[in-house]
Each structure stands twice: as structure tokens, then as C-alpha cells.
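As a point of orientation, let us examine one representative protein, giving the amino acid sequence and C-alpha cells.
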Amino acid sequence: MTTSDHTKVLKQIKGKPAKLKRFNKYNTPKDRSCGRKNTKCRRCGRTGVGGFINKYGLNLCRCCFRDIATELGFKKYS
């Protein structure tokens, strides 16, 4: 199940309203007001699990940041 769409599993229980109601009750993601899962990457939509750059309002995961860092004006020092 992905964080973006929990409805992908509904094909088998589409015609069974009781099971559908119970599935939605327990498997619909919560609306979060704070925490790690609340912030998402602006570019790819990954949740901020590890390596999330929120500084300066970037809101990018580390993979997307590496791709576009030079375009943003950051320099790589080796």
C-alpha cells in the first residue's frame, strides 16, 4: 500500500459494501497535523523518512536534492 493512494486494493471487494466499509475504516491513512509522514517531497512525493531537506523551505528528499542541487546554486565539494 502506498502513501499516495490506498484505493488500489479495492478491486476485489468493490461489490461487497460491508467489507468495503470495514476496509476503509482500518486502512484509510490518517490526516496528520505534524510528524515525519506529514512532510512530502515537492518533486517526487516521498515522505520525509530519512534524508529530507526542509531547510530554507526546499522540502526535497535527498535523491531529488542531489539531482537539482547545481541548478539551485549549491556546489559539490569533494
